[in-house]
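We were asked to recover a plausible sequence for a given structure. The inputs and outputs are reproduced exactly as logged, with field labels preserved.

PROBLEM: sequence recovery
POSITIONS: 139
GIVEN STRUCTURE:
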């Protein structure tokens, strides 16, 4: 598509937090695209001949609707939380990107019996916290 088109267009589409940006940077563009385009058929990707509306539609489908992501947890919140906890504990950045792409909240408390090691307080509630980000940035 070209930086001259996609970078300028993406400014109005991006709503990524620090944790998402760190993950994308950590895995690199090719690996990030492998996850975000796993179900994408080659003929569906815009070409240099595609018009602007086709390009915008593709970008929105890829990043906002995450239309081309393979869902390993079938949108099950408990499964996503469990997998997220495993990925953080094992420092598996690629799994973190996959789970983010599936809709996992990278800022939620992780289900774990030993939260102290990840910066959790024993009385932490189930509301969001920034602990997963601090675990990611230490990778």
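RECOVERED SEQUENCE:
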């Amino acid at each position: 598509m070209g930086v001259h088109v996609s970078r300028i267009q993406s400014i109005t589409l991006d709503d990524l937090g620090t944790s998402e940006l760190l993950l994308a940077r950590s895995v690199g563009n090719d690996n990030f695209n492998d996850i975000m385009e796993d179900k994408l058929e080659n003929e569906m990707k815009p070409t240099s001949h595609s018009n602007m509306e086709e390009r915008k539609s593709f970008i929105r489908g890829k990043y906002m609707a995450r239309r081309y992501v393979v869902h390993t947890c079938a949108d099950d919140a408990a499964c996503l939380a469990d997998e997220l906890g495993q990925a953080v504990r094992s420092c598996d950045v690629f799994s973190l990107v996959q789970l983010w792409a599936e809709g996992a909240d990278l800022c939620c408390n992780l289900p774990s019996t030993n939260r102290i090691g990840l910066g959790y307080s024993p009385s932490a509630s189930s509301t969001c916290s920034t602990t997963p980000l601090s675990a990611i940035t230490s990778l």
